[in-house]
């Protein structure tokens, strides 16, 4: 084995390929063919600009409640790399990851892989090792050329399409929709989880012969005072509890997860009781995660304008007596102006922080962009930890501290607050 520690493997992988992001399926397909891991009974692939992590978490929790052995692959992580690969609800162990990396290293020959490609292949090997029934795979970037797409999905879902990663996916929603719809497969169900469907989603499904099912047309949710119902052209699930993941978008995400499970029948059969149990048990750090106290903390990975608008709705629906103070860390390739404008009316006080990594913005530059968007002065801090400490010191009883803008931001805040993922 090339390295004796997981960190040794990860440090090596990060510098191995010439580009951190290098979209394409040739490399990963070549190595996957050499590895030839056994395929789970069902593969459920989930993509989208926002919401895909929530849908994956719900699928995982519901399927486990139904008695299935589930492997769930998501990215990026918040505190530990192992979070990306969960088996039976728990993080994969270091030993299993190192064993997978060693197999990949031996099989790849001269093929160079990106950090994410190593990650995706390791997940598939870990799932084979554990003998899971179902693999829930979250797309990393886009869809058509993402490493996850090397595996044919039995059911593929695109939760939403918005403007993000435009340097890689294209300048418009239609371009981005076409890339995300690349995970659809001929003759199989493709689920779309938002009410506004880009033309490119439907056009791609029609062109390849995928059977498209859309929120608001083929399935939907009906809110009730004490819960909700899932309704579709094929079935109804009544008297369901609200998802344990808070946030304004979560009913749509839950309905999308149930549409995926409906499409997987009869290969997967999930009774209503398992749906109820899974929705009550599901957890996902960093999605309108509320830490009660004085002050209250809210942690959210929102890093594009659409996600920021959903975050704003959640903040306004949960009023506090004092001020809402934001610790904001956003990477340099994001729409800072759009994010700030979306939250301007819901945040009273701002602190811009520097994140780690080559895509990070200096805190002064981030503060300047935010000031232009929100129309008020912005405090600066050299790190997330420093921003949290500064903002906490300025907060009074009844205030709320919002930490948002990136997985890197929330991960550092979880570490500073000493909270688990």
Describe how the helices and strands are arranged.
Blueprint lengths: L5 H9 L11 H10 L6 E6 L4 H14 L4 E4 L11 E3 L2 E2 L2 H15 L6 H16 L3 E5 L16 E4 L7 H4 L3 H8 L8 E4 L6 H10 L2 E4 L4 E6 L2 E6 L3 E5 L9 H14 L8 H10 L7 E3 L4 E5 L4 H13 L6 E5 L7 H8 L5 E5 L9 H12 L4 E3 L2 H11 L5 E5 L2 H11 L4
Parallel strand pairs: 1-5, 1-6, 2-5, 6-7, 7-8, 13-17, 14-15, 14-17, 15-16
Antiparallel strand pairs: 2-3, 3-4, 9-10, 10-11, 12-13
Give a description of the structure.
The protein is of the alpha/beta class and 421 residues long. The chain folds into 2 domains: 6-281, UDP-N-acetylmuramoyl-L-alanine:D-glutamate ligase, CATH 3.40.1190; 289-417, Mur ligase, C-terminal domain (Protein-Tyrosine Phosphatase, Chain A, Alpha-Beta Complex). The chain contains 15 helices and 17 strands. The chain has helices at 6-14, 26-35, 52-65, 94-108, 115-130, 166-169, 173-180, 199-208, 250-263, 272-281, 305-317, 336-343, 363-374, 384-394, 407-417; strands at residues 42-47, 70-73, 85-87, 90-91, 134-138, 155-158, 189-192, 211-214, 219-224, 227-232, 236-240, 289-291, 296-300, 324-328, 349-353, 379-381, 400-404. The strands form 3 sheets. It has an 8-stranded mixed sheet, sandwiched between helices. Strand 9 and strand 10 form a beta hairpin.
